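Why this split exists: single-chain examples teach little about how molecules sit against one another. For that reason, every record in the complexes split bundles all components of an assembly together and asks for one structure covering all of them. Below is a record exactly as it appears in the raw files.
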Amino acid sequence: MPKIKRLPDEVIKKIAAGEVVERPYSVVKELVENSLDAKAQNINVYIEEGGLGKIVVEDDGIGISHEELPDALLRHTTSKIASFDDLYYLESFGFRGEALYSIAAVSKISIKSRVRGENNGYELIAHAGEVINLTEVGMAYGTVVTVSDLFFNTPARKKFLKSGQTEAGLIRQFIEKIAILYPGVKFTLFIDGKKIYSSAGIQEQLGLLTRFWGLEKGNLLTLEEKLGEGFFIKGGIALPPAGKPHRKLQVFAVNKRLVRSGILTKAIDDAYESLLPNGLKPLVFLEVVVPGTWVDVNVHPQKLEVKFMDEQKIYLDVRTIIRNKLVNAKNSSLKSFSP
Ligand code: ADP
Ligand code: MG
């Protein structure tokens, strides 16, 4: 009979990392979300070799004090929640305290941070999750996380990755989407040393959206509707016949978090039913805000999906309001053409 034994720590680490850190894009997402949680106003992202060579995320947020720097790398250590019920009132992306732990387990990581009021920052270096050094460094206020040699100790994971170009494309799409969701924050993305995207950080959401879709402002309908107590939808949708043969430029967000949502996707598809030429998918940026108790964000390790408690209500309310908006817009444009 095989005996039940506890796995060695380094195996536990790699298994945990496998769930959170699927690919370079997941690292960028976790680090950028940490920067947003730290109330950064400027976030710079640098990618080399599709993120396998190097990923740097630099912010001007609140920082991590040097006493706490080593704790940031531990599993289930977080400054963001203290009890399970806090999940219902979550105002941060993070809550598991697993991202830095997981990323560190499969890379060589440096976390430099300087909090307001301190004369210097501190840099923590770890390889495969083992702390190697903690030293004082000169730096601006904020945090710089550098992840090098991602998956150097999990060669199988590395082998399955798509090309650097695919990864860079995915990362760019993510940065553009999150910049639209947080138009007050300035995001800049550098790929292999070249600046390829920058948002202005001046709340100009409509401009970012038209740029993302390659459309004129006149082709967009903006959304801002209260559907109930604590229940809002915001964002923008493209007027037919503008659409795309794929869904890559669709953006869904729930309570300020980018998500994939089958129910929202279906609500939008059904709202556009018969209004778009065959084969085209709607261009939509839909931000849904609901009371924390209506939604469970804790259903997916990478938090890419959320679960609504009452899916039917969300579906019907969203579909109805968007359908009405589209039909009204169509009718008024028809009227303006008639003599
Ligand atoms: P979580 O975000 O779920 O708390 P992480 O592993 O991503 O877990 O981060 C652990 C902790 O490290 C955070 O709770 C936060 O206190 C701190 N931290 C991480 N990144 C930053 C950052 N860019 N600025 C300030 N603090 C950070
Ligand atoms: Mg986090």
